[in-house]
Design brief:
Arc Repressor Mutant, subunit A, about 90 residues
Length: about 90
């Protein structure tokens, strides 16, 4: 679904998935990512992304933590207790 969303966006400038859905799918497939990567995946403005991030954090779905290798970097991770089914590729 994420691939189709991206393809339609590139070809027709149409999005099927919400920014929240794109971030959650990316986290499920890739694990913890830097906030800047999640922002690119969401496809929103800086301000728009932080509104998305706040909604996801308030819902208890994601958390931000400091990167252990670089304390300047914040990483976004999916709460492992959230029942998002594994994706079959």
């Amino acid at each position: 679904m994420a691939d189709l969303d991206e393809k339609l966006h590139l070809q027709r400038n149409i999005r099927l998935l919400t920014p929240e859905a794109r971030v959650l799918i990316h986290l499920k497939l890739n694990g913890s990512v830097p906030v800047t990567t999640a922002m690119q995946v969401a496809g929103t403005s800086y301000r728009g992304f932080y509104a998305v991030l706040e909604r996801l954090k308030q819902a208890g779905i994601v958390a931000t933590v400091k990167d252990p290798q670089d304390q300047r970097v914040r990483r976004l991770s999916l709460d492992p207790s959230i029942p998002i089914s594994p994706v079959n590729r």
